[in-house]
Specification:
single chain; 82% helix; 0% strand
């Protein structure tokens, strides 16, 4: 056996590789924080005096919901969309408009595991089980919107609760020690360089350029953060999955949240369990709490993104990130915690899966109708 093949050398190379990935991950987090600042700054420049007109378009909560839903379904990443929303709030987007967008992002992210279930379409029974497991997430998130959107429109529950939490954290102003914000100190030099690069553009185009660059950076950074986190943590995540599922709701919800934090993607978390149900290893009711935990775990990205916001809007940026967390926690507590509501997503997903297993075209129609045709039709009618 050569020296290069020895276990010690292989272990050392693995450790060096892991350190490189961790350093790259830190760099990507920095890019995400910078991107959120760019979007906020660009949004202010681009909207300017037209901000009220721009906000009027999405002032209808249903319209805000659909924007968040379609954007997430197209990008297939609620983390990306919620981080962009944080940046928009930092740029002046009112919380009342942003809250339905966050709710819509929850529905839009469900498309990924539903698409994964189509991989079992060749085997009828397997497909039925997989589609059942995948659409639990859909029905739970839609049900959450039906409950909490009217409550939010009537009473502003999430807006007021999140404002209270942020005030308790003393984050309404500049976060830091004696007015010093370490995030601003790190991101401001790079932001100034970008500002200088686009300052020669006419009219509102410097702001638009910042927004486009910021969105591009967010999509890139979160995509590669997910890939790196998977390579570093997917083994540990699978261990958590196998040890926790079927051991009660608290264990399932906690492990779903933790696994999503580790891999930085609720879509990955929920998509991992769909094939396990399809193959008959697990039952749909076993992965139900795990799926709910994934909803909670995905909120970490928006919270991190909010740290990149500085100045007078730092508090509201953290507030909208907190709205996302509170919305998902409240949904789990209310729906899963209430016996008469708990089984509704399970029952609806099972009935739909039986129909789709018999007539597979209905599965395609369901995905296209729920995530694209219906919301885009509402936008077309409303414009």
């Amino acid at each position: 056996m050569s020296l290069s093949d020895s276990p010690l050398v292989c272990e050392t190379e693995t450790q060096h590789g892991n350190w490189r990935r961790w350093l790259l991950l830190i760099g990507l987090v920095y890019l995400m924080l910078l991107a959120v600042s760019m979007i906020g700054s660009g949004f202010k420049l681009a909207a300017g005096d037209q901000a009220k007109t721009l906000f009027t378009f999405a002032s209808n909560p249903i319209m805000g919901l659909i924007i968040g839903m379609v954007a997430t379904a197209l990008i297939q990443s609620s983390s990306t969309v919620t981080s962009i929303i944080v940046g928009m709030v930092a740029g002046g987007l009112p919380i009342t408009i942003a809250v339905p967008m966050m709710m819509g992002a929850n529905i839009g992210t469900s498309i990924t595991n539903t698409l994964v279930s189509l991989g079992h379409v060749a085997r009828k029974d397997e497909f039925q089980r997989a589609f059942n497991a995948a659409t639990i997430h859909d029905f739970f998130n839609v049900m959450s919107v039906f409950i909490f959107l009217p409550l939010e429109m009537a009473f502003g529950i999430l807006e007021h609760t999140s404002a209270f939490v942020v005030s308790m954290l003393n984050a309404g102003g500049t976060m830091g020690v004696d007015g010093f914000n370490p995030i601003k100190a790190l991101t401001q030099p790079a932001l100034n360089i970008v500002t200088g690069m686009v300052s020669g553009l006419p009219s509102v185009y410097p702001g638009i350029a910042k927004i486009i660059l910021g969105i591009g950076l967010i999509v890139t950074s979160i995509t590669y953060m997910g890939k790196i986190m998977k390579s570093l943590m997917v083994g540990k995540a699978k261990d958590i999955l196998h040890k926790s599922i079927g051991k009660g709701p608290i264990s399932g919800i906690s492990s779903g949240a933790l696994m999503t934090v580790l891999v930085q993607s609720s879509s990955t978390t929920t998509s991992l369990v769909v094939p396990l149900v399809g193959s008959g290893i697990l039952k749909a009711k076993d992965i139900y709490p795990f799926t709910l935990g994934a909803n909670i775990g995905t909120c970490i990205t928006a919270l991190i993104a909010a740290l990149g916001v500085v100045g007078v809007n730092a508090g509201v940026a953290l507030q909208i990130a907190m709205v996302h967390l509170l919305y998902n926690v409240f949904s789990v507590v209310l729906i899963y915690g209430t016996p008469m509501l708990r089984d509704i997503p399970l029952d609806l997903s099972y009935k739909l899966s039986v129909i789709v297993a018999e007539k597979k075209f209905y599965g395609v129609a369901y995905i296209g109708g729920l995530f694209f045709c219906m919301p885009l039709g509402i936008i077309f009618i409303s414009v």
